[in-house]
Each structure stands twice: as structure tokens, then as C-alpha cells.
Write a structure and sequence with these properties.
heterodimer, A: 137 residues, mainly alpha, Cytochrome Bc1 Complex, Chain D, domain 2, 3% strand, disordered N terminus, B: 165 residues, 2 strands
């Protein structure tokens, strides 16, 4: 391809940024980063109380989020089907949580399908995240 | 905690007997086939993705056709959504197929593609009463770790079995 010089410079800059992003991939975000992103996508401010209700309520299916994570996920839970232990979900009790956007999205997708029967909306994710961030030692 | 009684009808014992009798049913490595199948080093991505809800079951515990079906049905995986991105599914599927059960371990094919419905699994556990599986400490036959504490390292040696109360 025969790009003009300014365009070539711009493409090189974008490639450089992408490479820098790739080296920072995986756990590069903070839970607050994720909350900001979900809130922006939802176009509304998150509500921790609504997140807590969503987390602990049944949504017409066998399990709630709390079935496996516990009503207040400041300690480990147990998988409702297999019994395997689950590490605490609240970031204040488990610094690895909610630091990898792809992993977070994967588990929201799977678990919302199990609990709600559909994917969660950005607003629902933001609400739950905002509540998880209020859980402190 | 009660040690499980030595099981006289273990696959290992039968295999050794069959070989000793010169029937030739067993390939040379079959005497330790159990541990060989279970001790295969697990692909890091397999461990990362498949040890989230249960242990990363050794690929040698299911035949290739069963793994392939499971991998195409991950969004409906025994009642839960275990979906993965297409690239991960493809690479793990290849690895599982290459290391799947063969021979006696693979036949007959297990019902519902469940390890716990395999003929060899049911034979190996035929002395465990139904009520034992239902104990709160065990919950399900898929919970290998309840009795095989080293299961996540591929250790299913029956001398290390402890059935919890």
C-alpha cells in the first residue's frame, strides 16, 4: 500500500500503542477502571444498593449470584453444583478480582446466563461492581 | 476419615492378571495405565480454563468423541454455561483429542459423555454405596478431590484414597 507520510506516521503510532497495550494485557485494569467503563456504556451512574439486590435475589432460575459466591462475598464460596471452593469476589478481600477485563466479561457472560437466563446489561454489571467495591474489611 | 478398604477388583489387578495369563489384552504400558493416563502434564490453558468449577480432569478419562462433543456444547455444559472463545475451544479440543482415552478405557462410550458413567469408573467404584456419594462432604461423583486428595495433580492412586464422613 502507498500511504501518505502523515498517514504512515499515524499508523505507526497506532501500531506502537497497540503493542504497548498488548504487553500490558491481562491484569492491567483496576476494579474501578472496569466500573467506569461499564457505567459509561450504561450511560448512567451505578447504584450499589441495586447491585446488592441483583446479586442476592433469585431471577426465576435455580441459582442466584449468592448461591455460589455467598450473600456477602467477603469470604470464599462453594460452587452450587460441584462443591469446588470459590475465592472471595469482593476486591478488598481478593486483589486479583476484577483486574482482567476479558476474564471479567467471560464470567459475567457465563454466570448471568446461568442466573438470569441472558447476558447482563452494562448497567447491571456496573451496579454489582459498585456494590462489591463497598464491601470492606 | 476412614481409609477405603483395598479393592481386590481394581483395574490394575485385573490387568496384571490378564497379562500374566498371557492373554495379551494389555499393551506393555497398561500395568500402570491409570497413572500414565492421569499424570500427563496438563496444558496451562487447559488448567486455567477447566479447573475453575471442578478439577481439570485428565484427558485420558474420556474418549476423543466425548471430548469433542463436550467442547462443542460448552454453553450448555451439564446445566451451566461454560462457554469459551472459539480460538481457545479449538486449541483445547485438539489437545484433548490427542490425549483422550483409548482401548478399554474408551469403550463402551460413557453415557452422556460423563466420566462417572464410564464402565471403568463404575467398576472401580462399585464398592462405594450410593448414600456415600450423597454425603455433604462429597456431594457428587464428579468431586474427585473429596476422596482423591491428589486428583488435581493426577494422583488417583487407590492407596491414597480417604473417604470423608
Amino acid at each position: 500500500m502507498n500511504h501518505s507520510k502523515p498517514l504512515r506516521t499515524l499508523l505507526a503510532a497506532i501500531a506502537g500503542l497497540a503493542a504497548a497495550g498488548a504487553t500490558l494485557a491481562a491484569p492491567s485494569a483496576t476494579p474501578v477502571d472496569l466500573l467506569v467503563a461499564y457505567s459509561a456504556k450504561a450511560g448512567a451512574a451505578p447504584e450499589p444498593a441495586r447491585g446488592q439486590r441483583f446479586f442476592t435475589a433469585s431471577h426465576g432460575r435455580e441459582w442466584s449470584c449468592a448461591s455460589c459466591h455467598g450473600a456477602v462475598p467477603n469470604q470464599g464460596g462453594k460452587h452450587a453444583a460441584t462443591g469446588k471452593s470459590i475465592a472471595p469476589l469482593a476486591p478488598a478481600f481478593n486483589p486479583e478480582r476484577l483486574t482482567d477485563p476479558a476474564k471479567t466479561e467471560k464470567w459475567f457472560r457465563r454466570n448471568c446466563n446461568d442466573v438470569v437466563g441472558r447476558e447482563c446489561t452494562a448497567a447491571e454489571k456496573a451496579d454489582v461492581l459498585s456494590w462489591l467495591l463497598t464491601i470492606k474489611p | 476419615m476412614t481409609p477405603r478398604p483395598r479393592c481386590p477388583s481394581s483395574l490394575f489387578a485385573r490387568c496384571v492378571l490378564a497379562c500374566a495369563a498371557g492373554i495379551g489384552l494389555c499393551p506393555p504400558a497398561s500395568a500402570d495405565g491409570d497413572s500414565r493416563a492421569a499424570k500427563l502434564p496438563l496444558l496451562p490453558s487447559y488448567k486455567a480454563e477447566f479447573a475453575a468449577c471442578h478439577i481439570a480432569y485428565p484427558p485420558g478419562l474420556l474418549p476423543a468423541a466425548a471430548w469433542q462433543r463436550l467442547m462443542t456444547q460448552l454453553p450448555h455444559h451439564f446445566g451451566t454455561d461454560a462457554s469459551l472463545d472459539a480460538a481457545t475451544v479449538a486449541s483445547l479440543s485438539t489437545w484433548l483429542t490427542a490425549n483422550a482415552a483409548q482401548g478399554r478405557r474408551a469403550s463402551p462410550p460413557p453415557a452422556e459423555d460423563r466420566i462417572t458413567r464410564s464402565a471403568w469408573f463404575m467398576r472401580e467404584h462399585d464398592e462405594v454405596p450410593a448414600a456415600t456419594w450423597k454425603r455433604a462432604s462429597i456431594k457428587s461423583a464428579s468431586n474427585c478431590m473429596a476422596c482423591h486428595a491428589g486428583a488435581d495433580r493426577g494422583d488417583f492412586n487407590e492407596h491414597n484414597v480417604r473417604i470423608p464422613r
